[in-house]
């Protein structure tokens, strides 16, 4: 419906009808206005399957929902690093929504994985904002190509479950921009989601759903968001301030309480009716984007969509280790499948994204036509301690086989929406089982089912590890096909696996700040921290093996020098040197050389997944602009590039850099600086053009030359000179003023000159 018609419609609405439009009719529907022919539409979870509830609603995933298809959770699908795959997921979900008459699917969930403990990491994509925002954009485009809306969530800085409804995320401006806003920015700007979900938490003290700075100034005015903002379910604190700040739709229903507050606020002049009108227009605009493009012929084909779920899982699972090519197995080998999850896989997380799956395939079921598979349960999902009988049976199976596959993972009670994990360990009984199996069998592969990293005390002794995360209902098919080589794995980790929880930068304070979350680590999250500190990790960001090999060569940059307003073309040749087809994720990182202030050692600035036949090679090209070199400058309130040298790194992971070349980037922007009596001489020396003014005031001081070049020349004359220079660098102008007995007027005149 065009903007004018929508405005007309809103003009015909009574104040009460308009206030009513701003909250749900019930748990999942907007209100209708029958008098004007405005119907009610439905919103549903999301994000990795359709959780449409027909009866009474709940946002905890406890009540029943229609039989649907459970796709891999965000932790796994992100490991595909494959935009096409996420687009396909989106298209599939969009079609399911059309078939089920759902106007908006509540996803993608795209918060940054700040700590491995966040109970909801399984739904989120990455510790890196580029991966997160790019994959989310593809998902959004996919869903919306079917004329169904998305709701990127949870905006903003909602990175833990502990006190998630009330706590304040205390984050500095630069960190917000570089990580937490950046995770949403690209997706909002490029994929234009129809809605955005405001999160439960506060951001620097102000509820996200009342935060004008982010809901209006950044989201709408800066990024051009033109849909409606919906509250997370129950995230409204004060309705009228929320409305003024930019929160359009409250979900679920407030049973009329908040609608009345809106009416009163307009009547008593507290709320400008214009604001209410704009809100209704935005809600109606999005509703009609859907209503006018209903696809009555859409069919929810569960069989077909199950196959899509399988394909995504296959493209995403990460082969973490494969010593001596233990994998893939041959179907003639006798293989023992050991572990509860071989038969009853854990394939999705708990909470609002919980899908009522129509069909779940375990690895054991996928292997049913293979007579060479033995099975032993090994442990039960609900136990911490070992059951000796189960261990004995498992050891026997491992002994009889050529190799064993241990299907390990986190029980559902360990991780879910609503609470954070306490540690990063697997249940004790599983680690002990590994030890027992290793005593009788050296050819062991571990297959993991978990929503977030786990410690692996046995990693050195296990030749092969396959990370299958929470892989959706086709989990077993994908695992089986990878284990036996029908599929060549190509997933890469979208997060670092630290050796132990204590290595994570947030460890000392995560979940230990009372209600609040203080982001003390700043921009040093995930590999940005581990790599800057050159710490040993279990598996680095971007890591993942293949059954074939890739060789990189001929890195070329279009220039050796550039301005921050130019773009740089980067190309590299990748060759499949093995003897089977495979896919590789080519990763480009940028590393500033000798940064003057805190910067991550390197940051991912581009990536591309490519498919290569044996012997085939391909040139992969990237274009880098200012953002690739920039950090957020809090003086400019903008992105800024420091002039200097930057290394362009091409890697197979953040720790496996295979090609690199430097480029000199020159900034075209000067960061403003106001000189005062307390400015140091160092600040003057940084700006050679200011030297004249200072020389006029002080000349040379007690034999210490004022200009750094002379100091450098004379440095050979003894350490003393360097010491004197350092003292001068950190001395404020006022210290010299007193020392030389200079008059105030003279000083003011020089400061004025410096500030010209
Ligand atoms: C979750 C959202 C979800 C909503 C509706 C909330 O508790 O945080 O992600 O979309 O419930 O179920």
CATH class of the largest domain: Alpha Beta
Instruction: Tell me the major beta sheet.
Output: 6 strands, mixed
List all distinct small molecules, including ions and cofactors, that are bound in this structure. Answer: beta-D-glucopyranose
- Give the DSSP E fraction (strand runs of 2 or more residues): 15-25%
Taking pLDDT < 50 over at least 5 consecutive residues as the criterion, the unreliable ranges are: none
Tell me the distance between the termini.
54 Å
CATH architecture of the largest domain: Alpha-Beta Barrel
Strands, count = 27
Mean pLDDT: 95
Structural class based on helices, strands and sheet pairing? alpha/beta
Adjacency order of strands in the biggest sheet? 9-14-13-12-10-11
Helix content: 25-40%
Per CATH, what is the topology of the largest domain?
Answer: TIM Barrel
- Supply the number of helical segments: 23
Q: What's the Cα radius of gyration?
A: 29 Å
The CATH superfamily of the largest domain is identified as: Glycoside hydrolase, family 3, N-terminal domain
| Total tally of structural domains | 4
Defining traits:
TIM Barrel; six-stranded mixed β-sheet; globular; Immunoglobulin-like; 756 residues; alpha/beta; Rossmann fold; 4 domains; binds beta-D-glucopyranose
Describe the overall structure.
The protein has 756 residues and is α/β, with parallel strands linked by helices. The chain folds into four domains: 3-58 and 77-291, TIM Barrel; 302-532, 3-Layer(aba) Sandwich (Rossmann fold); 550-666, Immunoglobulins (Immunoglobulin-like, Sandwich), CATH 2.60.40; 681-754, no CATH class. The chain is 31% helix and 18% strand. It has 23 helices and 27 strands. The strands form eight sheets. The protein has a six-stranded mixed beta sheet. It has a five-stranded mixed beta sheet with strand order 19-27-26-21-22, with no helix packed on it. The protein is globular, with a radius of gyration of 29 Å. It binds beta-D-glucopyranose. Beta-D-glucopyranose is lined by residues 45-46, 59, 106, 153, 232-233, 352. Beta-D-glucopyranose binds at residues 45-46, 59, 106, 153, 232-233, 352.
């Amino acid at each position: 419906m065009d903007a004018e018609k929508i405005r007309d419609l809103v003009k015909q609405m009574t104040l009460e009808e308009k206030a009513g439009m701003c909250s749900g009719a019930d748990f999942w529907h907007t209100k209708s206005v029958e008098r004007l022919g405005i119907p009610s539409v439905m919103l549903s979870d999301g994000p990795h399957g359709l959780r449409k509830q027909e009866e009474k609603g709940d946002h905890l995933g406890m009540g029943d929902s229609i039989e649907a298809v459970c796709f891999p959770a965000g932790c796994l699908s992100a490991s595909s690093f494959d935009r096409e795959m996420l687009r396909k997921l989106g298209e599939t979900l969009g079609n399911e929504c059309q078939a089920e008459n759902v106007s908006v699917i509540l996803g993608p969930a795209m918060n940054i994985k700040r700590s491995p403990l966040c109970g909801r990491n399984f739904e989120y994509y990455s510790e890196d904002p580029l991966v997160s925002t790019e994959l989310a954009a593809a998902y959004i485009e996919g869903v919306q190509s079917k004329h169904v809306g998305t709701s990127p969530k949870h905006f903003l800085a909602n990175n833990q479950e502990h006190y998630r409804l009330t706590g304040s995320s205390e984050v500095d401006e630069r960190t917000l921009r570089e990580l937490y806003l950046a995770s949403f920015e690209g997706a909002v700007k490029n994929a234009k989601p129809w809605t955005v979900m405001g999160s439960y938490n506060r951001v620097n003290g102000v509820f996200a759903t009342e935060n004008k700075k982010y809901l209006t100034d950044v989201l709408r005015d800066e990024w051009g968001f033109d849909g409606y903002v919906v509250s997370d379910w129950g995230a409204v604190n004060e309705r009228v301030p929320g409305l003024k700040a930019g929160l359009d739709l409250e979900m679920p229903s407030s049973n009329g309480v908040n609608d009345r507050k809106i009416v009163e606020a307009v009547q008593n002049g507290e709320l400008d009716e214009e604001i209410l009108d704009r809100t209704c227009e935005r809600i109606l605009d999005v509703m009609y984007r859907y209503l006018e493009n209903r696809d009555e012929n859409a069919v929810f084909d569960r069989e077909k969509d199950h196959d899509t779920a399988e394909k995504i899982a296959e493209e995403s699972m990460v082969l973490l280790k494969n010593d001596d090519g233990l994998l893939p197995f041959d179907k003639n080998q006798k293989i023992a499948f050991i572990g509860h999850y071989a038969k009853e896989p854990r394939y999705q997380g708990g909470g609002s994204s919980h899908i009522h799956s129509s069909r779940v395939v375990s690895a054991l079921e996928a292997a049913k036509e293979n007579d060479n598979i033995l099975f032993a349960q090994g442990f039960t999902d609900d136990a911490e301690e070992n059951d000796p009988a189960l261990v004995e049976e498992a050891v026997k199976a491992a002994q009889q086989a050529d190799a064993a596959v241990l299907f390990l993972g986190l029980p559902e009670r360990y991780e879910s929406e609503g609470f954070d994990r306490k540690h990063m360990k697997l249940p004790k009984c599983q680690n002990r089982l590994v030890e027992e199996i290793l005593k009788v069998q050296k050819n062991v592969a571990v297959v993991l089912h978990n929503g977030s990293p786990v410690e692996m005390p046995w990693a050195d002794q296990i030749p092969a590890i396959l990370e299958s995360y929470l892989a959706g209902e086709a989990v077993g098919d994908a695992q089986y096909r990878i284990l036996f080589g029908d599929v060549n794995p190509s997933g890469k980790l979208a997060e670092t696996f630290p050796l132990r929880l204590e290595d994570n930068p947030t460890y000392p304070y995560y979940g230990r700040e009372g209600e609040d979350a203080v982001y003390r680590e700043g921009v040093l999250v995930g590999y940005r921290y581990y790599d800057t500190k050159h710490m040993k990790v279990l598996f680095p960001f971007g890591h993942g093996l293949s059954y074939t090999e890739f060789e990189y060569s001929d890195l070329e940059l279009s220039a050796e020098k550039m301005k921050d307003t130019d773009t740089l073309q980067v190309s590299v040749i990748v060759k499949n040197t093995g003897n089977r087809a495979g896919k590789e994720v080519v990763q480009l990182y940028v590393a500033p050389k000798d940064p003057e202030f805190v910067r991550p050692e390197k940051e991912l600035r581009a990536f591309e997944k490519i498919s290569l036949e044996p012997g085939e090679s391909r040139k992969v090209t990237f274009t880098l602009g200012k953002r690739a070199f920039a950090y957020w400058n809090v003086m400019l309130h903008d992105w800024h590039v420091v002039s200097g040298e930057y290394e362009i790194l091409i890697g197979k992971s953040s720790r496996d850099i295979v090609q690199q070349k430097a480029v000199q980037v020159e900034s075209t922007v000067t960061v403003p600086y106001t000189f005062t009596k307390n400015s140091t001489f160092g600040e003057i020396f940084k700006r050679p053009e200011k030297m004249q003014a200072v020389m006029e005031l002080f000349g040379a001081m007690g034999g210490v030359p004022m200009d750094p070049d002379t100091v450098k020349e004379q440095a050979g004359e003894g350490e003393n000179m360097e010491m004197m220079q350092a003292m001068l660098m950190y001395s404020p102008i006022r210290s010299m003023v007193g020392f030389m007995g200079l008059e105030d007027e003279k000083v003011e005149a020089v400061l004025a000159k410096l500030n010209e």
